């Protein structure tokens, strides 16, 4: 299991008897609450959570030839081939309420319906919510100026306070003052946020308004504009990512 997978402990609602966990916001997707109906306990509790219908008779298995695999491949999850999911480990009491058990959970399709996959980003998105067709843009020659930084601050501000964005914006301010040399990561972040702002405006989303229904598509289309795959061409420095991780752990 990847060490980056977060671990959550559910909280029992005494009124409803349900366990509740809140998944943190994920790159523009709002926080989501998941309710879990725990296994009933006590002397009057049923021995199972299904129905009492008789178990159907099992057809006789006539057998088949089994060939041993030449080699066993172990894949650490979440695998890179699995896209558009939010995963976590649920830590909760077991059915006897004596011990605990860990359950690995994957929530797929967090961004709703899609109709296209990005050639470079590998992300699914909806072209109708992207703010226009893909353009052929280049982040490498970007020149960071005050007007552009103000646009970055305007756009990222719609998502609320974010420690990773704060680190990157602080870097842009230092670049303007000549205190820091712009890196490729800075240029990718800078050009991406400005272009994403343009896509939001093309969709009719007012400045300062966070529309969760379009973020993934506008974000993915912007990655495609600049031919970026975030796994190989990050838009956040390690310090920015660490700031985000610590903030999430502190919630």
From TrEMBL:
Domain Pyosin/cloacin translocation: 2-106
Domain of life: Bacteria
Keyword Cell inner membrane on entry: no
Keywords on record: Antibiotic, Antimicrobial, Bacteriocin
Chain positions covered by the region annotation Disordered: 39-63
Cross-referenced InterPro entries: Pyosin/cloacin_T_dom, Pyosin/cloacin_T_dom_sf
GO biological process entries: defense response to bacterium; killing of cells of another organism
Keyword NAD: no
Compositional bias per record (Polar residues), positions renumbered to this chain: 48-63
Name of protein: Colicin-D
UniProt lineage: Bacteria, Pseudomonadati, Pseudomonadota, Gammaproteobacteria, Enterobacterales
